[in-house]
Amino acid sequence: MSLASVIQLDFGGVPEGLPVLIKSGQGLVDNLKKYFGLTNKNPWFRDVREAQVMVSEGRLVDFNHFICEVDCRQDPLFQWSVCLILGEMAFDPSWGTTSREQAIRLFGEIFKSNSGSDKHRDVHRWILTLLHNIAELPKIDPSVDFDNEAIKQQALDLALKFECLGNEKAFSLEYSFLAKNSNRSPTMSKLLKAVANTPSLELVLDRLRHQRRETYSRSDIYIPPMSKLNLNASDENTDPLHERVHRFLKGNGLVMLILGDSGAGKSTFNARLEQDLWDTFSLGSPIPLLIDLKTVQDLDQDLIQRHHDSLHVFSASRMDELRSQEFILICDGYDESQCRRNLHTNNRFNRRKQWKAKMIISCRTQYLTVGYQSSFAPQQDAVAHLRLSPSELFTEALIAPFNLDQIKEYIIQYAIIPDTSDNKPKWTAEQYMVRLEAITYVMDLIKNPFMLKMILDTLPKMSLTTTQIIRAELYDELVDLHYKNGLNRLTEQLSRQDGL
Predict the structure, then answer these.
(1) Which among 4, 51, 73, 134 could disulfide-bond with 155, CB atoms 3.0 to 4.6 Å apart, if both were Cys?
(2) Which domains does the chain carry?
């Protein structure tokens, strides 16, 4: 495999300040001989040649073991050469997405193995150089561009991560290099190919993390909710909900129930919680999963399995391996699923040889009945081997209404969102507050985020001739406006169906 253009590097230290020029059409071994003045007597050079033969023959598993066990594995020049081999693999679509992802992951293993070593500083810079060039891979062939985007993102994320950990920077480049198109595909036995193309658990989880991150939107308004201990607790004794949740996650508890009125922000909080957990995720940490309960057909068994099936990330064999991992299940919309059963008990979570999971379940307050705790709390005898007290097994929190500071912060964020509609006047946060304060008793209404947004959407569209209006007039405007919006949406749906 060769490089299709020229790359000029200023190494400053590998080797002894000499620049390295890798030319199109020349193989790795030829370049090393020409520019380093090497012979086959150099032990690490012979090992590089052997590693290249393994790759050319498609013996990726042998290659992986070889570079981790060979005597010269800590030699900077050997590592530099191995990184070039990995870079060429990552660039070449003929290797397939899985093998290219593994090549990038090996960059990370080499980088981490040399952490704190001054003599490997230039190796770190070389790795960063390759990763940034991979991240800038242009579109060449529509048939592989989709996979290339995933490879580019993986390389960029790894480069940025390493740059945050140390002071090393990539070498300056005069040209980007691209993998030369090749008609040959790596050849290997079916068994070896199956082994080589089996991604590690770390790689699969990284893929899931990227998949979940693509669903997040930082443009949404988010006000961290306050909470109280339960339905009977005073509104005066509140704490940030995320603090209560993180205390639960760090403790021994198994199930936490998050309650709130309609529109209180339960789903928004759940989405932000999953995002924060993935942002800080590392291998060995509990795996966060946000599950929209109303989309799952059968909640009583294999909840984790059914959710993963919808994600299309894990194979059947990988699911068996995941049973040794711990999960954080963020179950959104218990009430919307019309469920009345105990999800923890029916799914046999945390029993011997079963899925290990902490559950965070959100539910609308109005959905509860007398003795609702039994629908959520784990059965103590089923998890007796954990030796947890009833208070550890189950806890709950109630999202508190917005206070004045939260209302003001929401309005500030709302006012700065770009308005794409043609018929809505643009107001400042101050204008919204002045208008709201002029409406009789409106402050009681806007303690709920959903109601607050409805009213903010409605106010600029109202034909008001005075600054003083009564709440009944606002109700009329809200009903009229949202009736029209609903009618328009129904008309559009019917039109689309007619066009099918």
Answers:
(1) 134
(2) 7-198 (no CATH), 209-399 (3.40.50), 404-499 (no CATH)
What does the pLDDT look like over 116-166, one tens digit per residue? 676 777 788 888 888 888 888 766 555 555 567 888 888 888 888 888 776
How far apart are the C-alpha atoms of 256 and 244, rounded to whole Å?
10
Tabulate helix, strand, coil % of the chain (nearest 5).
Answer: 55, 10, 40
* Alpha-carbon span 189 to 288, nearest angstrom: 37
Q: Measured between alpha carbons, how far apart are the two ends of the chain, in Å?
A: 50
| Tokens coding 107 | 């960059």
Whether the CA torsion 267, 270, 276, 279 is positive or negative: it is: negative
Cα torsion for 397, 398, 403, 409, to the nearest 10°?
Answer: 70
Distance CA 448, CA 264 (A): 6
Radius of gyration over every alpha carbon of the chain, rounded to an integer in angstroms: 29
Contact by Cβ (8 Å): 152, 136: yes
Hey, what are 428's tokens?
A: 């400042």
- Residue 9, pLDDT above cutoff 50: no
Peptide bond before 15: cis, by omega within 30 degrees of 0? yes
State the Cα–Cα distance between residues 337 and 367, nearest whole angstrom. 11
Between CA 239 and CA 170 the distance in angstroms is 45
Could you report the per-residue pLDDT of 342-362, keeping only the tens digit for each? 999 999 999 988 899 999 999
Mean pLDDT of 363-369: 93
- Identify any residues that bridge with 356 across adjacent strands, giving them in sequence order: 326
Query: Do 83 and 123 touch, CB atoms closer than 8 A?
Result: yes
Asked whether the beta carbons of 394 and 386 are under 8 A apart, the reply is no
* Residue 23 confidence (pLDDT) above 60: no
